[in-house]
Amino acid sequence: MNEPEQFAKEHTDVTRRYFLELGAAGAVALSASRLWAQGPDENSQRLLEEALSKLEYLTRDEDYINFGRGTPPPHELPPEKRRAVGLARETWQLEVVPDPQSDAKVENPLSKASGTALNWDSLMKLAEKHVVRFLSVTSCTNGARPCGMGLWEGVPLREVVWLARPTGNVRRVFYYGYHNDDPQQRFQSSLPIGRVLEDPPGEHPVILAYKLNDQWLTAKRGGPVRMLVPSSYGNASVKWLQRVILSNNYQASDTYASWNNDTDSMMKTCARFIHTPKTMKAGEPAPITGVAQVGVSGLSKVQYWVCPRGAPLPKDDPYFTKADWKDAAILPPPQQHWGGGVPDGKLPPVPSQVDPATGKPLQWPMRYAIVHWATLLTIDRPGEYDLRCRTIDANGIAQPMPRPFPKSGNNAIQAVKIVVTTATP
């Protein structure tokens, strides 16, 4: 049995076990749903495999939702061009220099001009002592759903910053990657120096990432080295990293800031659907599955609510706090196979999140990660309905609160249409 077949079998067992624990109704729903259809029918088996691939916990490199700038984007450059401009491991260099427009004090700038820029061999030498690995979701500030869930490996940015020996007047760190030497194509982000040098309790460090799912970072994912800021949205995790600037400028001059985005927004907790039936029969149960992004405030519940389509909604309750929400089930972590192309489906050591003795997460759900959720839905009357989902964070606050504003992370409540037909006599 190959890896996809093994993962599909395990995930089927986990998901089916949840529905079968619901009793006879769950068994009926599974046998009636094309999502879990069994038998020799090739089309049904294909639908099953497609649905299960969407539920794989770690995202394969080729399945990430991709964002990137440049004409062409750097990952589309031919290999010889990427090598020439420092986008190959053997030619990559990183500069860490003071901001010429501020009075930052840096004793040992790492620059190409002086021959002191950090290269790949030096980064790997740092990794021998300082390597970190953690599970983290990547999500676009304004995106409808997470871009992907990965196991990231790298070296804390602070280890490289200290090589440059800053001594004073440094309040912010700006950084950008390669964009065809055209300033108009540059994507720049920044962080306060405190976030780089020190990790709040329970937080992962900002890293220079060079591996995803235990494989070298591909050009499409921002390789050979990209920034990875685990508590923030993807705009902070700049790809094709080549320059870090230490500055006394305390104001964010990020590319994203100029687009009216909140550049310092931490990741929000929110739920999204993965599988919902377009049609279902009245009185007959149907399985519903989804994914929840776990932000800075953690996650305690995922809920769903069914409302007749077109029914008047209260004007004084824009976030539906008084609606008849029902709890869905948060599914457990993978038992053995985490997916994502990780060799043998098993995680390498992740000391801060996973017990090395058991291979199980120390806490579930994990912040800045995802969980899958499921429920069994029955609607008794034919008609058109809106099905919505939301999260309740670990502080007891329902999505989209406490930060419902756009441009600081998309956590709007999702709604999908379901048509319920008359049950078969």
Can you describe what's shown?
Helix content is 16%, strand content 27%. It has 425 residues and is of the alpha+beta class. The chain folds into 2 domains: 194 residues, Oxidoreductase, molybdopterin-binding domain (Sulfite Oxidase, Chain A, domain 2); 154 residues, Immunoglobulin-like (Sandwich). A 5-stranded mixed sheet has the order 3-1-12-7-8. Strands 4, 5, 9, 10 and 11 form a 5-stranded antiparallel sheet that branches. It has a 5-stranded mixed sheet with strand order 14-21-20-16-17, with no helix packed on it. Helix 1 packs across helix 2.
Q: What is the makeup of the main sheet?
A: 5 strands, mixed
Query: Which overall shape is indicated by the principal axes computed on the Cα atoms?
Result: elongated
Order of helices and strands: HHHHEEEHEEHEEEHEEEEEEEEEEEEE
Strand content: 25-35%
Count of all domains: 2
Structural class: alpha+beta
The largest sheet has its strands arranged as 3-1-12-7-8
The residue ranges in which pLDDT falls below 50 over 5 or more consecutive positions are 1-11, 37-41, 43-49
* CATH homologous superfamily identity of the largest domain: Oxidoreductase, molybdopterin-binding domain
CATH topology-level fold name of the largest domain: Sulfite Oxidase, Chain A, domain 2
Whole-number radius of gyration? 24 Å
> Using DSSP, what is the number of strands?
21
Helix content: 10-25%
CATH architecture of the largest domain: Alpha-Beta Complex
N/C terminus separation:
42 Å
